[in-house]
Amino acid sequence: MKPTCIGAGRLVLPNPGVAKAHGWEHGLPLEAKIRMDLSALGPPGTIAEVGRLCVLERWRTRTAALPELCAAMCLESRRHGITHWISAANLECDSADEALLIHEVIRRRGLMRSDIPVGLKATDGPRSPPRFRFYTDEERGRARDDNPSRLRLPRAVSTDARLGARYIGEPIWDEHFGMFAQPLIAAVQDVMTAAERYLRALERAPSRT
Q1: Which of 12, 19, 145, 160 could be bridged to 27 by S-S, CB 3.0 to 4.6 A?
Q2: What are phi and psi of 36, to 5 degrees?
Q3: 3-state SS assignment for residue 36
Q4: 104-161 tens-digit pLDDT
């Protein structure tokens, strides 16, 4: 039987040459958008960037695909001496107001880190009126009248949080996807622990028929 790829991820290792050419600290793509002081986490050679993490839709729920993929990326990171990842989670919207509302929900849920100084380098954004909103009108109304922490979060945001990620700074515009994204950091050890815990839970769960 021909093997089928059901998931993939991109691990960008620190690049001193790129860092020197651009005046960055780590030589990672996200540094083109934001300025981060990650010195409290470790030296430049220990920070990598994770991106394009994806799993085929039918394998996203109650399967080992995502935790196995994350565990493999953790092992590869350890092999290169990487202790932390940076990335940005898709917010599933191209509205600045909507992105800020999601950011507020993240903050209210205690998923933000305030000890990592972050500054925006670029102020670019959508060039046309918003076409994609994450919340319904009813949800936005509840956010005005109730506690925003009760609102749902985009799939990538909630999944990354369960894997140990914590969010930093404010939403940034991702021109490639045409959506806003929320920067994050994650300790490789925390991701590995979360992935192993999820795999153990799957082993204990009844088999699906």
Answers
A1: 19
A2: -125, 140
A3: strand
A4: 999 999 999 999 999 998 777 888 888 999 999 899 888 877 778 889 999 999 999 9
- 16 CB neighbour count, 10 Å cutoff: 12
Evaluated on CA atoms 97, 101, 107, 111, the torsion sign reads negative
The residue among 174, 2, 31, 187 whose CA lies nearest residue 96 is: 174
Q: Is residue 37 part of a domain?
A: yes
| 162 located within any domain | yes
- The tally of domains found in the chain comes to 1
3-state SS, residue 92: coil
Give the residue numbers spanning the domain of 125.
7-204
Torsion angle (degrees, nearest 10) of CA 92, 97, 101, 104: 120
Structural domain contains residue 2: no
For the entire predicted model, the pTM comes to 0.91
Cα 24 from Cα 17, distance rounded (Å): 10
